């Protein structure tokens, strides 16, 4: 792990949809610790005009675009994140959710290539939990150039559910809520491309259970917890 880093080495990507208040709180905490880092806010079909004001207030880019997250769009939501990132790339990209809390700067960054964060294991498959996930620039370029995020079967994952646990998980999610998945779509893609997936000790991200980080063990946690008063209050 490398300890020294500048804001110019990082990009944060924040997808938003009907969660303005959480996004406002998240960005306030982010800017406290990373004052000049590039931040991309992408509204996934939510035309709330406050996002543009929010972006201007926090010195972020605001992209108000069409809805891509429903499963009928396949991997388009993830592909669009990479397209926007590659307009002005940095060494790393971190995708965070609006209920993610930035507590401090990173004390280290990965020196190896790959996809990193809090590793999840399900049915023998690996993925990075989507509340905060990072990728190195070379991993992003490999994924983007592979075309796998545009694979037509991602629009109907149930047709491949018997092939692997990645497809079973994607199919169940599509059936449950009709949405694609950053976590398991990238899990499948990185598996296909043999891109390393590894634990990043600066991040602790879970699906629903907040992490007590009052000792600042982690730079970033997900989701926000009751004791994160600033994050809750905005």
What does this structure look like?
Helix 5 runs antiparallel to helix 6. Helices cover 32% and strands 24% of the residues. A 7-stranded mixed sheet has the order 3-2-1-4-7-6-8, sandwiched between helices. The protein has 7 helices and 10 strands. The model has no long low-confidence stretch (mean pLDDT 95). The longest helix is centred in the N-terminal third of the chain and has 14 residues. The radius of gyration is 17 Å and the shape is globular. It has a single domain, classed as Spore Coat Polysaccharide Biosynthesis Protein SpsA, Chain A (Alpha-Beta Complex), CATH 3.90.550. With 234 residues, the chain is of the alpha/beta class.
Which structural class best describes the helix and strand composition? alpha/beta
Globally, the shape reads: globular
**Number of beta strands:** 10
CATH architecture: Alpha-Beta Complex
The largest pleated sheet is described as: 7 strands, mixed
Widest β-sheet, arrangement of strands: 3-2-1-4-7-6-8
Roughly how much helix do the residues carry, as a percent range? 25-40%
List segments where confidence is low: pLDDT < 50 over at least 5 consecutive residues. Answer: none
Computed over alpha carbons, the radius of gyration is 17 Å
